[in-house]
Amino acid sequence: MTTILKIVRYVILDVLRNRWVIAYAIFFLAVTDVLLRLGGSGPRALLSLLNVVVLLIPLVTIVFVTIYWHGAREFNELLLSQPVARATLFHGLFAGLIIPLSLAFVVGVTIPVLVQRAADAETLRLLALMLVAGCALTAVFGALAVLIAGLVDDRLKGLGIALGVWLLMTVAYDGLILWVAMTFQDYPLEGAMLALSFANPVDLARVLLVLRFDVSALMGYTGAVMQRILGSPLGIAAALGGLAAWSIIPGLFALRAFRRRDF
Amino acid sequence: MRAGAWRRAAATIATFLGTLLVPPSVAAQRAPAAQAPQAQGADIIVSPSGPVQRVSDAIQRVAPGGRVLVRKGVYREPLIRIDRPLTIEGEAGAVLDGSGAHTILEVAADDVTVRGLTLRNTGPSQVDERAGIQVHDARGCHIEDNRLEQTLFAIYLAKVQDCTVRGNVIRGHEAAQTVSGNGIHIWSSERVQVLGNDVRGHRDGIYFEFVKHGRVVGNRSERSARYGMHFMFSDDCHYEDNVYRDNANGIAVMYSNRVEMIRNRFEHNWGSAAYGLLLKDINDSRIEGNLFLSNSVGLYLEGANRNTVLGNTFRGNGWALKTLANAQGNLYERNVFEANAFDVGTNSRENVSRFQENYWDRYRGYDLDHNGIGDVAHAPVRLFALVVEQSPPTLILLRSLLVDLLDLAERVIPTLTPETLLDERPLMKRPAGAPRG
Questions:
Q1: CATH fold of B33-248, please?
Q2: N or C end of chain A: smaller count of CB under 10 Å?
């Protein structure tokens, strides 16, 4: 147990040392601050922040973690020559990467909201959900990055695949949804749409947040169905469970790959 | 018996003399001093402890044009019927209770004024249209400053002319729409004025059917189980300075011509079938200076032709404006569209209405000659709006990057959005006079 904590501490310090994460936090700080100043009310500013959260967190996380994992190869080899279990090292590394990235996001968004006193109850609830969704996305894309870095040895190739995965999940996948919706528009699609959005963590996070931000009713019948399923506490739990699954399953595959690696 | 007959005869004589000798206003001033309540010009006073303990008895005794004053207390009587011109006035705390079983007050005479009473508890009914105050076949009635609680219908006017409903406070059951009636229900009437009432929790807050030349000013209608205001076949009516808020299905008005709706507020009518203002077969009307704030659909037009939509503000709605292909020849001018998820939605590739000099917060053009009018036309229909119109489940993609990219592409090279639905002269700045939310 103490070994894993030591590894986590080391990785966090290492991540902080290269200042990327600091810049990431400052970016969120600046964007949130500007949105609050320009956008007025808290919920409105958070709504504008939604796109940033849903697009940027996956991008930064998957790129950063892929690069770091590749770069940590020598460190890993060194540690594995010591009496350290592979699983311990893997979990330590993973946590050491996810914690500072999540913290940067949480701190960057929360501070302006609190400082500008935009925090009424409504804003705080939305903020909490957004923070949870953002952290979940960080974990999901961290896990995907670790899987990619574990399977692909070539640094550039790994980075390329990581970017490809990001593009697939944020843009191309929505194209698929659009195509399905337009092709089968004569059929009741609410269930299928929900299933499709559960199959993509980015969409899942986006829909979860959009439904909370009060634009649900304009969706008419579809919105009512989705609101009932995803808007309820059970639905939120299911969506968060979906996000957790998206983080745990690639993580387990990555762990298996890490165990079988020959170094 | 004999005493009663004598008294009545004396009253009649006194009335006759009184009308000859004393101008009515003086009579009214003298009234409190009069000893015998039966005397002309005097009020008949109803009180739980006085000689007249029932409102119906007082109405039987009062001379035409006289006044019945109801003292504080709760009166439970069968249906009270007013069959002659009179004024019935309640002190604070004068309550007529329908015992959950019937209509409370029925007015079937001209020139009746009902003022300051509290009427409550008609009980629900699926069979008859029970009301707090029901007026029929009458002229010149005034229903003023009453409070109606827990009634099926609160104020129900049928076949009346020149009536005024003013300053009443109406609180309904907030029940489901199948077991609830309308707040102010007016049928087949002319020149009716509905002024400054506050209606909450009925099926339709204000309901007009076959009403001509009505005026609805300064009312507030909230939390209706169906529509905050609902009218049909009511031409030449005027609606001004009303507030409609949190109604389950918003406001729906149908089959009427030459209607004026000015400076009303349509707020928070939010739900899967809620419209700020739904116009169906409304023609040659004016929708001016209204505020549409946070409705699922702000203004919805179906089969509505030749209307003028001028100087309204649409803010924070799901759809600011939805216009079907059969709504033709409408003019949209100097409206403000801001912070809506969709500004304009339509199911048509053609445009049969005119948009000019509106302010669109999505407008990205420029104004080189600084005349306040953008030099490039604005196309307010997003591609995504069309897609959603065709296949509603695609709304799940709202705020997706892909959709934003498609919208951008469509804006640069329009292929699917109606080419002629353009504001050729979009305003660069929000007009100062537009209502603010």
A1: Pectate Lyase C-like (2.160.20)
A2: N
